[in-house]
């Protein structure tokens, strides 16, 4: 029994050792593959494969010879197999969870799976194709990974990514500009671009065509022809249509020469930021090299200091009283070991130089002290900022106080009607409600039919215009009662946006009273007046 137990234990021990040996071998292989797939040589091999795959896709054309079709057919399988091998090697070397942490790796895996699906589908259904092979052309995006080895290009890309918030805000502003002028163009030129030779491609009869027409004007492509058609549609230069050229000039001045050039300003700013990042990286790299050289010199000094005493020749001198040692500055202290090393045959060297490592250490200590003091200052500033932010949030939660002035010489600060108006205007969702009404009025304006003015759809939308204008009028009355008219600071008409809102509401009410075809070109309709309200966005 003991013999059997010993043999069984030895067998388990040998199996365990064999498993450990296999595990170590597998680990070495994994590390070797990891180094290989992360090497620069492997990266450039993949880039070359992507380039060759692109060339094969570019030389494909209609009416190509049969041998070229066969070559491209098999080359497609070769490239797909190489990309699959690359993906599997990366998954094995980096481990699967680390592999999928990269967005590029996820994209590559999705494209490969799509390519495999298309090949399998084409094998079973040769007459059908999803066209997913186009996705493989997107592997050209892998060329952007060259920024990993190109510092200046990497910094430029990072600067562009950091400025995406500004770019998106500018794009939204540009979209609002196009939307406003497209709706205004529908009101001015809707249904009027009908000439004897036919209707031109650029017109304002529908919302989509109006958007495209304004966008074409912004690009500067044949915009003067569109302007001449607009003047011609309104009676020509002699018939008073020349005044409508102001619309097209405003689109060009504000949209093309102002908004679009802001993109150029952002690009120039990004170039400056990228240059600063590159210079900072070069400076940091230089500091690291200097620090590494300093550590090497310190190590050499320590190696010389640790030489055996037998190799040091004794100095035969008479003991003399040494002068007092001056106190060291910069918080430098000589330890007992350094003092003992300065004695040679009973004589102390008063002017022995400090070791280079001690100088480095003292410099690091001084830098650490400076950083600690700077950190304390930053903590003080952060605490003050937090205090100010807390006070600001407290004021926001408490709400804005009523202005300590009489509104229109009628409503005192403690008047019940004024307090009610102040409460409604400062509700959390009041501005959101007004914004929703503005968006709804814009949608109603875009849904109008400028060609058939007396259609049933326009009749329904006219009732919505009454409701929208009523909401804007109520908003105006509430704010005037709450803030006052114009005499005291903070009153309603001391804000430019409030003046614009009042003008819009005034013309809308006038348009409701004065109805008629003859007033269309001189007094804006309720729909046209709500158009300007979109600028509050």
Automatic annotation (TrEMBL):
Name of a matching Pfam family: Ion_trans
Compartment(s) where it occurs, according to its Swiss-Prot or TrEMBL record: Membrane
GO CC list: synapse; voltage-gated calcium channel complex
Residues in Ion transport domain copies: 41-278, 428-516
Alphabetical UniProt keywords: Calcium, Calcium channel, Calcium transport, Coiled coil, Glycoprotein, Ion channel, Ion transport, Membrane, Metal-binding, Repeat, Transmembrane, Transmembrane helix, Transport, Voltage-gated channel
Coiled coil: 264-300
Record-level Gene Ontology MF annotations: high voltage-gated calcium channel activity; metal ion binding
Membrane topology classification: Multi-pass membrane protein
One annotated GO biological process: chemical synaptic transmission
Superkingdom of origin: Eukaryota
Residues passing through the membrane, by range: 41-59, 71-92, 167-189, 244-268, 429-447, 496-514
InterPro entries registered for this protein in UniProt: Ion_trans_dom (IPR005821), VDCC_alpha-1_subunit (IPR050599), Volt_channel_dom_sf (IPR027359)
Name by which UniProt lists this protein: Transporter, cation channel family protein
Top-level taxonomy: Eukaryota, Metazoa, Spiralia, Lophotrochozoa, Platyhelminthes
């Amino acid at each position: 029994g003991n013999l059997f137990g010993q043999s069984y234990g030895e067998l388990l021990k040998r199996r365990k050792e064999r498993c450990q040996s296999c595990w170590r071998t597998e680990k070495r292989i994994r590390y070797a593959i990891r180094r290989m797939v992360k090497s620069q040589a492997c990266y450039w091999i993949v880039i070359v494969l992507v380039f060759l795959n692109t060339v094969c896709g570019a030389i494909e054309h209609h009416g190509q010879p049969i041998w070229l079709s066969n070559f491209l057919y098999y080359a497609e399988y070769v490239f797909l197999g190489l990309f699959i091998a690359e993906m599997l090697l990366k998954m094995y070397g980096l481990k699967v969870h680390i592999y999928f942490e990269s967005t590029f790796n996820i994209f590559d895996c999705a494209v490969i799976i799509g390519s495999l699906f298309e090949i399998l589908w084409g094998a079973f259904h040769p007459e059908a194709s999803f066209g997913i092979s186009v996705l493989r052309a997107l592997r050209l995006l892998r060329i952007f990974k060259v920024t990993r080895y190109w510092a200046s290009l990497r910094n430029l890309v990072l600067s562009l990514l950091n400025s995406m918030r500004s770019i998106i805000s500018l794009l939204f502003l540009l979209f609002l500009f196009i939307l406003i002028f497209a709706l205004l163009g529908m009101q001015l030129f809707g249904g009027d671009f009908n000439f004897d030779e036919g209707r031109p491609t650029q017109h304002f009869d529908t919302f989509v065509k109006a958007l495209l027409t304004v966008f074409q004007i912004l690009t500067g492509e044949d915009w003067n022809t569109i302007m001449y058609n607009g003047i011609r549609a309104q009676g020509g230069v002699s018939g008073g249509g020349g005044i409508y050229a102001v619309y097209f000039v405003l689109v060009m001045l504000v949209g093309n020469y102002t908004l679009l050039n802001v993109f150029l300003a952002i690009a120039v700013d990004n170039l400056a930021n990228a240059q600063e990042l590159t210079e900072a990286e070069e400076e940091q790299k230089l500091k690291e090299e200097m620090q590494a050289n300093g550590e090497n010199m310190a190590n050499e000094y320590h190696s010389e200091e640790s030489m055996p005493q037998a190799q040091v020749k004794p100095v035969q001198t008479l003991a003399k009283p040494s002068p007092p040692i001056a106190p060291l500055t910069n918080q430098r202290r000589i330890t007992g070991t350094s003092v003992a090393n300065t004695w040679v045959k009973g004589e102390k060297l008063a002017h022995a130089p400090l070791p280079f490592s001690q100088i480095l250490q003292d410099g690091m200590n001084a830098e650490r002290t400076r950083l600690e003091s700077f950190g304390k200052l930053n903590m003080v500033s952060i605490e003050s900022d937090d205090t100010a932010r807390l006070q600001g949030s407290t004021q926001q939660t408490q709400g804005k106080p009523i202005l300590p002035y009489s509104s229109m010489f009628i409503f005192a600060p403690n008047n019940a009607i004024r307090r009610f108006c102040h409460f409604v205007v400062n509700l959390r969702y009041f501005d959101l409600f007004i914004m929703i009404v503005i968006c709804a009025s814009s949608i109603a304006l875009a849904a109008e039919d400028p060609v058939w003015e007396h259609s049933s759809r326009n009749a329904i939308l006219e009732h919505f215009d009454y409701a929208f204008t009523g909401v804007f009028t109520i908003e105006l009355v509430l704010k005037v009662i709450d803030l006052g008219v114009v005499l005291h600071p903070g009153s309603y008409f001391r804000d430019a946006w409030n003046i614009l809102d009042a003008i819009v509401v005034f013309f809308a009410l006038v348009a409701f009273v004065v109805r008629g075809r003859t007033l269309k070109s001189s007094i804006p309709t309720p729909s046209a007046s709500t158009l300007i309200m979109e600028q509050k966005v």
